[in-house]
Design a protein that fits this description.
single chain; 357 residues; alpha/beta; 6-stranded mixed beta sheet; 36% helix; Fimbrial assembly protein
């Protein structure tokens, strides 16, 4: 019942590209080992998707998405065909369980399936199931802690079909939020002091994914229905533009007088309110009462004024995060483009890092 093309927690050291498929577009990253615990960004590329091709993490049009993947792969200049893909967190059930440490590998797999049936609201033959042994259980050294993950078969198969139709070979399937955390942990490992609580807000097209972390451990996670789509829609309504043109002008800033005060500033205030609300949810549902640093990622993170507005409303130090910070850059990497787009590549970068697990 485990994934037959690799493992959700697979650790294959292959030439590998991270392939992030979101509702707004395709993002692709290839990393290499630069030695001395350094990574090098060899290439990255993005390709927009038609509206409706991916909705709420579900691939609705395999042909449109696979064509976009093929264009992004060609644009990037990579030669690697193996890809690491991500599943939206909302479509994956994860659960930590405790099992006897004396189980053989075969018996362990059987026991995981038995335990999984208690937590998965589908028949096991309808799901893809995988697991990873984390290590000895905290309060029972003779037992082991195991993370199991399960998702509907068709959701995995759709992503596999997209990659294969683009001429690529799916090798690893991860969870997007896990990939994002791997990317952010690489950056914060050296910068943050032990014990600091970090808030990561990935602001996408329709959804903001919130992760509160401490020393690499997740304290809290949630998704909020808020993203850059609302800003684009406001531009469409106010200026009579097509959705695609509004998206383009949102990025270039080529909009009429009054855009700043009438449209952008209310959006920034709403975004800051969403961040503040998520922080309050965290405080009221956990024993914690402070966050030391906020990081913004996703395609909306670089919208002018967002960092300043969030920092002002939350009273918490806030920064836009680049997953490529501290990396060497390959000769084909365009630095100006990278600076403008880097925060949107958090998931793709984390997926590409699976090459080095």
């Amino acid at each position: 019942m485990a994934f037959d093309f690799g493992a959700l927690f697979g650790r294959k050291k292959l030439p590998l590209v991270g392939l992030d498929i979101s509702s707004s577009g395709i993002r692709l990253v290839e990393l290499s080992d630069a030695g001395k615990n350094q990574l090098r960004l060899e290439c990255f590329a993005t390709e927009p998707l038609p509206r409706g091709a991916v909705v709420d993490g579900n691939i609705e049009n395999i042909e449109q998405v696979s064509d976009a993947v093929a264009r992004a792969w060609k644009k990037s200049g990579t030669r690697a065909k193996q890809v690491a893909l991500g599943m939206p967190p909302a479509s994956v059930i994860t659960k930590k369980i405790i099992l006897p440490g004396s189980l053989s590998e075969d018996n362990l797999e059987l026991q995981v399936e038995t335990e999984a049936s208690q937590y998965i609201p589908f028949a096991l033959d309808e799901v893809r199931l995988d697991f990873d042994v984390i290590g000895p259980a905290d309060n029972s050294p003779e037992d082991i802690e195991v993370m199991l993950a399960a998702t509907r078969k068709e959701k995995v198969e759709d992503r596999v079909a997209v990659a294969q139709a683009a001429g690529l070979k799916p090798t690893v399937m991860d969870i997007e939020s896990y990939a994002a955390r791997a990317a952010i942990e690489r950056i914060t490992r050296q910068k943050s002091q032990r014990g600091q609580i970090l808030g990561l807000f990935q602001i996408g097209t329709n959804v903001t994914h919130v992760s509160i972390l401490q020393d690499g451990e997740v304290l809290y996670e949630r998704e909020q229905p808020f993203g850059g789509h609302s800003l684009t829609q406001d531009i469409v309504r106010n200026y009579g533009l097509s959705y695609e043109e509004a998206e383009l002008r949102k990025k270039t800033g080529d909009l009429p007088d009054g855009y700043q005060t009438d449209i952008l500033e209310p959006f920034l205030e709403n975004a800051a309110l969403e961040v503040t609300r998520a922080i309050q949810f965290f405080f009221t549902s956990t024993p914690y009462s402070q966050i030391d640093q906020l990081f913004l990622a996703g395609g909306c993170a670089t919208i002018p004024g967002l960092v300043e507005t969030v920092a002002d409303r939350t009273r918490i130090s806030t920064a836009v995060v680049s997953p490529f910070a501290g990396m060497q850059l390959g000769p084909n990497v365009r630095e100006k483009q990278l600076r403008a787009e880097a925060p949107a590549y958090l998931v793709a970068c984390g997926l590409a890092m699976r090459r080095f697990d």
